[in-house]
Design goal:
Order of helices and strands: EHEHHEEE
Radius of gyration: 14 Å
Helix content: 10-25%
Strand order of the largest sheet: 1-5-4-3-2
Structural class: alpha+beta
Shape: globular
Number of strands: 5
Distance between the termini: 18 Å
Length: 105
């Protein structure tokens, strides 16, 4: 099952930022993972769309920067209210991917 984009920390529901198990706990409890692990666990189409929206080249043609080559981006695994989530941090902003059934909440 691919994890799908849920939200970034800027757009996070305010009522869940400081709740136990919410955004602040999710960020503080992060465990580092590799980009490869992040790619295996998250939806490729949604990931590609997000990377494009952040200004990354898909294949690095013409020397353009890809997200994979940007050493400022970090990848993580954590928990949101006890459920596994995957995220990357870019420019101080966390982009969180959750299991599909979490998106409706």
């Amino acid at each position: 099952m691919s994890f799908r984009f849920f939200s970034n920390c800027v757009s996070w529901p305010e009522s869940d930022v400081h709740n136990k198990g919410g955004l602040c706990d999710l960020i503080s409890d992060c465990e580092d993972i590799t980009r490869r692990t992040f790619q295996r666990r998250t939806d490729p189409q949604e990931r590609a769309e997000l990377e494009k929206s952040l200004g990354y080249s898909r294949n690095g043609a013409g020397g353009e920067l890809t997200m994979a080559k940007d050493w400022h981006v970090s990848y993580h695994k954590s928990k949101h209210h006890g459920r596994t989530v995957y995220l990357f941090q870019w420019s101080g902003i966390e982009y969180v991917f959750t299991q599909p059934e979490r998106r409706a909440k």
